[in-house]
Design goal:
3 domains, D-Maltodextrin-Binding Protein, domain 2, binds glutamic acid
Length: about 290
C-alpha cells in the first residue's frame, strides 16, 4: 500500500529521544524477521511507520545483485536486504514491505511525492540531489566503470569513450559524467535496456557503476566484460524526504548496528557477494 505522509514538524527536537529508543534493542542476531518493537517519539516517521505496520520501499527491479525481480516475483539483492533490515528495525516484517520500482530518474520525485517512504536503489549521494531529498549512509562505495562486448579489445578506459556512442540511464550520475567526458550518450530508462543496443553495435559500451555492470555481466555469462578501473566515486545512500533528520539519523543508526552485528555482511554475502568481494562499509555521514 502506498502511504502519503504529512510533513514532519519540529522533527529535530524529537531526534535524540527517538534514537535512544532504538539504539539498544535487538539481540544482535542476523535474522530476517522484525526486531522487537522499539518505541519512537510520536510524530516521527519511525513512529508512523511502526504504527502502520507497513512500509513502501523504492528499489531497482532489473539490476542483478542489488535489486532484481526474479521468478519469485519479489525483488532480490543487496539493496533489498538493506531495505529489509531497516523495516525490521521498525518492527515491520518482510511480508509487510511494498516494493515499488524506482528507476534512476524517478527516485527524487517518488520520495518528494510520498509514493515511497525511502529509496534503496544504487543511489549515489550528491549535493544536487541533497537539494531536494536527504540521504542516510553511505552504506557502499561504488565507482563508474565500463561494460563492452566480450571480444572488444578497443576500449580499455574512459578515455576511449570520448566521441563514441555509449549507453547509460536518464537521471543517473554516470550519464552526466559521460556527457562531461565527451561521449555521445544514448539514454534509456534502465540499464537492462542498454544491453540490446550494445549487442547490436548501436553503442560501443554501457557505462554505470561497476557493481551494476558486474551484475549484468554475470547474468549474461560470456557475452560482456567489465573493463578499466572505476573512474568516479559513487557513495550509495538511502533517500528519504528532505530534512527528515530523525528518520535519516535512525537509518544511520540501523546501518551502524548492522555493520556491527553481522547483518550487513550477511546481506552482502547472500546477494552481491556471490559475484563481488566483501569490502568494509564506509563510515556513515551524519551531515
Ligand atoms: N549510482 C548512480 C546514480 O545514482 C548510477 C546508478 C543508478 O542510476 O541507479 O545515479
Amino acid at each position: 500500500m502506498t502511504r502519503m505522509r504529512i510533513a514532519l514538524v519540529a522533527a529535530a527536537a524529537a531526534a535524540s529521544l527517538a534514537l535512544a529508543g532504538c539504539a539498544g534493542d535487538g539481540g544482535g542476531e542476523a535474522e530476517e524477521s522484525a526486531e522487537p518493537a522499539a518505541s519512537f517519539e510520536a510524530g516521527t516517521t519511525m513512529a508512523e511507520l511502526q504504527e502502520a505496520g507497513e512500509i513502501t520501499i523504492g528499489t531497482k527491479f532489473d539490476q542483478p545483485l542489488f535489486g532484481l525481480v526474479g521468478p519469485s516475483g519479489e525483488p532480490e539483492g543487496f539493496d533489498v536486504e538493506i531495505g529489509k533490515i531497516i523495516a525490521s528495525e521498525l518492527g515491520i516484517d518482510e511480508g509487510n514491505i511494498t516494493w515499488t520500482e524506482t528507476v534512476s530518474a524517478n527516485r527524487e520525485p517518488f520520495i518528494e511525492g510520498g509514493q515511497v517512504d525511502l529509496v534503496v536503489a544504487t543511489y549515489t549521494i550528491n549535493d544536487e540531489r541533497k537539494k531536494v531529498i536527504s540521504f542516510a549512509g553511505p552504506y557502499y562505495m561504488a565507482g563508474q566503470s565500463i561494460l563492452v562486448l566480450a571480444d572488444n579489445e578497443d576500449i580499455t578506459s574512459e578515455d576511449d569513450l570520448v566521441g563514441q556512442p555509449v549507453c547509460s540511464v536518464t537521471g543517473s550520475t554516470p550519464a552526466a559524467n559521460l556527457k562531461e567526458l565527451g561521449a555521445e550518450v544514448l539514454e534509456t530508462d534502465t540499464y537492462s535496456n542498454c544491453l540490446e543496443p550494445l549487442r547490436s553495435g548501436k553503442v560501443v559500451a554501457v557505462s554505470t557503476d561497476n557493481v551494476i555492470l558486474a551484475g549484468l555481466a554475470a547474468q549474461n555469462e560470456g557475452e560482456f566484460k567489465v573493463v578499466g578501473e572505476p573512474f568516479t566515486e559513487e557513495p550509495y545512500g538511502i533517500g528519504v524526504q528532505l530534512d527528515d533528520t530523525d528518520f535519516r539519523m535512525f537509518i544511520n543508526d540501523v546501518l551502524e548496528k548492522a555493520y556491527e552485528d553481522g547483518r550487513y555482511e550477511e546481506a552482502w554475502n547472500s546477494t552481491a557477494g556471490t559475484v563481488l568481494p566483501f569490502v568494509e562499509p564506509p563510515a556513515v555521514d551524519r551531515y
